[in-house]
């Protein structure tokens, strides 16, 4: 059974930083492309960043490129999202996902506000 548990969200001021974590289990983590998504009320879930399984290649949405960094630790079955220079428009619930699996965690709320 695939399980994804996101953590690390919170309230931060504009310009601040947060690091999100996603602990995964129930599948071969090292073989899976991992992705971070975010969603705000009334909008569709959007892809924020992804990281490939073996090469570590990454891809970012235009809105976060240069500010967010996705990384993974295959020994800990965990994927991270380092978020810097946060803006109010980054406010959302953030979810991680393993490509090829339909499971979603509960998400973690990120609120950027002064």
What can you see in these coordinates?
There is one protein chain. This protein is an all-beta fold and 114 residues long. The chain has no helices and ten strands. A hairpin with a 6-residue loop joins β4 and β5. It is globular, with a radius of gyration of 13 Å. It starts with a strand and ends with a strand.
| SSE sequence, one letter per element | EEEEEEEEEE
Q: What structural category do the secondary elements indicate?
A: mainly beta
Tell me, rounded to a whole number, the average pLDDT: 96
Order of strands, widest sheet = 2-10-9-4-5-6
List descriptors.
mainly beta, four-stranded antiparallel beta sheet, 114 residues
Please give the structural blueprint.
Blueprint: E1 3-7, E2 10-12, E3 18-25, E4 34-39, E5 46-51, E6 58-60, E7 68-73, E8 78-83, E9 92-98, E10 108-112
Parallel strand pairs: 2-10
Antiparallel strand pairs: 1-3, 3-8, 4-5, 4-9, 5-6, 7-8, 9-10
């Amino acid at each position: 059974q695939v399980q994804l548990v996101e953590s690390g969200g919170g309230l931060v001021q504009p310009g601040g930083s947060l690091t999100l974590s996603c602990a995964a289990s129930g599948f071969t983590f090292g073989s899976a492309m991992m992705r971070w998504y975010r969603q705000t009320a009334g909008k569709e879930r959007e892809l924020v960043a992804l990281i490939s399984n073996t090469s570590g290649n990454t891809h970012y949405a235009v809105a976060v490129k240069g500010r967010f960094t996705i990384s993974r630790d295959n020994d800990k079955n965990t994927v991270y999202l380092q978020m810097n220079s946060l803006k109010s428009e980054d406010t959302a619930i953030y979810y991680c996902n393993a490509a090829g699996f339909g499971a979603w965690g509960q998400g973690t709320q990120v609120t950027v506000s002064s």
